[in-house]
Design brief:
Elements lengths: L1 H11 L2 H24 L1
Length: 39
Amino acid sequence: MFITTLLNVLRTASTSTRDQVLPVLRVLHSSVNSGRKYM
């Protein structure tokens, strides 16, 4: 699954990369959630 792959990448990524990616993931997650409401 896509999310599982992302989690694995984050787990193996360095801390600095994780700090950069996490905010982006949160924005994507919230936009996906709001998109689901309108579907």
